[in-house]
Amino acid sequence: MKKDQQKQEADLPAQIAKSIRDAILSGELTADDRLPSETELADSYEVSRPTVREALKRLAAQSLIRTQRGAFGGAFVRRLSYEEAQVQHATTSTLLLSINEVDFEVACEARYALEKSCTVLASKRRTRQHLEAINAEIDRQGQSKLSDEAFCASDVALHRTLVDAAGNPILSYQLAGAVEAMQPLMNMITFSARSREQIVRLHTRLAGAIEAREPGEADRVLAELEDYTLDLGQGVIALRDKTRQTAETASLDG
Question: Using alpha carbons only, what angle is made at residue 148 by residues 143 and 151, rounded to the nearest 5 degrees?
């Protein structure tokens, strides 16, 4: 009985945080609204102020509220920007893929399917700045002394620019995880086997399709990139598994 009571008390901050979070998501509380004071919240939920303080810390950790000191201070509903949301989304996606060990094929399929959803809008809305940014990355990728790490970073930057060229912040947010989490995962597996020259050729065709406003051609290039990436990844993984099996067999024989 005592353990149940302790568990219920430990869950109180989570319950209060959920209640306030639900109020924000439902629109009952909107951006920049001031929350009741700690004392008022403690009275409302019939808990201690330390319990309320812990609940507010959890909300702040989720970027749902901000605190301000001074005579006009307190806790306020945070106005979260798309840029901040994209960073959080990418970080969460990276953790999700790492912890759950998502199959290479699954990540590759999802990443390219999502990116293809941008080509029509990107072809229609791309600006000169977008094209210049994409071509700058292609030029960078052609540099012979570019490190593998820098090449991978340039790869991510190019595809992120393609996504942003669609001119839809919600789409950019949704795809932040696909480009900035799944793509580095694939790069980490394939970088040792891929041909930079082949990647640059495909990227050059992709840039040309977006510039010419030809989303169908852009999708065909992305499909070729997907097939190439899948073949590379499967080959690297198969070789890695064979090497591991050989080492294990040798160890047993020894």
Answer: 55
| Residue 206 in tokens | 């992709």
Domain span at 63: 12-77
Whether the CB-CB separation of 74 and 80 falls below 8 Å is answered with no
DSSP of 156-174, one letter per residue? HHHHHHHHHTT--HHHHHH
Contact criterion met (CB below 8 Å) for 78 and 66: yes
The CATH code of the domain that includes 48 is 1.10.10.10
Q: CA 32 from chain center: how many Å? A: 26
* Helices 104-116/215-253 angle, 10° precision: 170
**pTM, to two decimals:** 0.69
Nearest to 217 by CA among 228, 225, 206: 206
- Do the beta carbons of residue 57 and residue 142 sit within 8 Å? no
Question: What's at 224, amino acid-wise?
Answer: E
Give the tens place of pLDDT for each residue, 67-120.
888 777 789 998 877 777 777 777 777 676 667 667 778 888 888 998 999 999
Exposed/middle/buried for 222, CB within 10 Å: 0-12, 13-18, 19+? buried
How many residues are present in the chain?
A: 254
Within a domain: 3: no
